Amino acid sequence: MNIKMSIVIFILLSFFNIGAISSDIVSAQNSFNTLEMKVKDISEFQENGVKLQYRTKNNIADEGYRIKESLPTNMNFSYKDDGNDEFEAFNSDLDINIKIWREDVYSYVEIILTNKNPKYGTKYLKNILKNIENSKLENTQYFLYYEGKEKGLDSDYFTNGLVSEYNIRKAQLMKISNGYSATGYLNDGEKINFALVDYDTGSHIIIGTPIIFTTY
Fold first, then answer.
1. What is the pLDDT of residues 155-183, one digit of tens each?
2. Nearest to 47 by CA among 144, 142, 131
3. Contact at 8 Å (CB) between 193 and 185?
4. What topology is assigned to 47-144 in CATH?
């Protein structure tokens, strides 16, 4: 394992093992937002995204129409029908893929929003999808992830207290064919996953909660 790879792994594992925590970090969402910003400091942004899944008793046609009407009009989305109850909404920065299928009395919905603009964090992306929520949705779940290309690191980077506010626990690291994958738990017990993956173009850092829902 080269020195640069070791430094990246040490920094990421530090997020999962530091014992001290600030009393104002109380939610998984806030913890992930802060973690995302810190990881952006040691990586070159590639993309981030949010997945929303839920079920509803609306039929497929009505739910698809409702989703389109719920997305912010000021974002100038274009739409593409991909068939089989699947469609896309997209603009120059964002791509939203919507899949709807029927099982018994429920329509099941999976919405994946991916972003290529580094100025948009996962909190911003999640707020876009929250426009779709209403009281008729059941089993609503969100998944968030960030991917960045590792950039040059100072070997003393992790010694200056950068991650001293974190208390992410029970880290488990495993070697995979092209890097490393690990799991741990945020302050309120929600699971978080990260990976350090080697490609021909360099190493990528990926973090997600509760899982990384994209392939790597």
1. 333 333 333 445 567 777 788 888 878 88
2. 144
3. no
4. TATA-Binding Protein (3.30.310)
- Token digits for 135? 């009281």
Distance (Å, whole) CA 69 – CA 192: 32
DSSP designation for 115: E
**Residue the block writes with tokens 């942004």:** 45
What ranges do the domains of the chain cover? Answer: 1-42+151-216, 47-144
User: What gap in Å lies between CA 102 and CA 87, rounded to an integer?
Assistant: 15
Q: What is the pLDDT of residues 10-64, one digit of tens each?
A: 666 665 554 433 434 344 444 788 888 888 888 899 999 999 999 999 999 999 9
Token pair 């973090």 is at which residue?
207
Torsion angle (degrees, nearest 10) of CA 181, 185, 187, 188? 140
